[in-house]
Specification:
By secondary structure, the protein is an all-beta fold. It has strands at residues 4-7, 18-21, 25-26, 32-33, 38-41, 49-53, 64-69, 75-80, 84-89, 100-101, 106-109, 114-119, 132-137, 142-146, 152-156, 158-159, 165-166, 170-173, 180-183. Strands 7-8-9-11 form a 4-stranded antiparallel sheet, with no helix packed on it. The chain has a 4-stranded antiparallel sheet with strand order 12-13-14-15, with no helix packed on it. Strands 1-6-10 form a 3-stranded mixed sheet, with no helix packed on it. The radius of gyration is 19 Å and the shape is globular.
Length: 185
């Protein structure tokens, strides 16, 4: 049992990545459109190597359900059968890390089966106010958590056509980060 974090050895620091960018284009109405899309070229044909294992937190019947990298790439969230969202931090220099055992730095206990999690899209670990995670879980309202303290920042309850509280089964932020969307049955 357990979980492992793997890294593609061909991907080093950001300066080692090949980045392509699209130039601004014009549409048929002669209006300029500022389109800036970046692509990171990654060679997935190379062998992966283990960076971390976490066998204590994910063993026995507590299996891993999902993993989400943070938008700034400094940490990741896990969701597991024990209804706990765990936050793991990554070292600054992944190229020189020997495989090791790690423990989560933050644990957020939800009251029921966790359906979905979502990072705030402009999350940066250097700015604690942006370190926010949204969660949905069975029989509970949508929660907005502080990823530094593990405390609830906000709770959102939705009501159905019978004026009864209903539970979201999915959650995501808008690309701009100004709206929180939830999916319902």
């Amino acid at each position: 049992g357990g979980t492992e974090v793997l890294q593609n050895p061909s991907v080093g620091s950001v300066q080692d990545l090949e980045i392509e960018s699209l130039e601004p284009i014009e549409n048929s109405e002669e209006k300029e459109v500022n389109l800036q899309v970046s692509f990171i070229a990654v060679d997935f044909t190379r062998e992966l190597r283990c960076l971390y294992t976490s066998k204590e937190e994910f063993s026995g019947s507590n299996f891993l359900k999902s993993v989400q990298w943070s938008p700034d790439g400094t940490c990741f969230l896990t969701n597991s059968e024990d209804n706990i969202v765990r936050l793991f931090e990554l070292p600054q220099d992944l190229d020189n890390v020997a495989p090791s055992h790690t423990k989560s730095v933050l644990q957020i206990k939800e009251g029921g089966c966790i359906y979905d999690t979502a990072w705030y899209p402009y999350m940066e670990s250097t700015q604690p106010s942006t370190c926010v995670v949204a969660t949905t879980s069975r029989s509970h309202p949508l929660h907005l958590w502080d990823a530094f303290t593990g405390k609830i920042r906000a709770t959102y309850r939705a009501y159905d056509h019978m004026d009864e509280i209903t539970v979201a089964t999915s959650v995501c932020f808008s690309p701009e980060g100004d709206k929180l969307y939830a999916g319902y049955n």
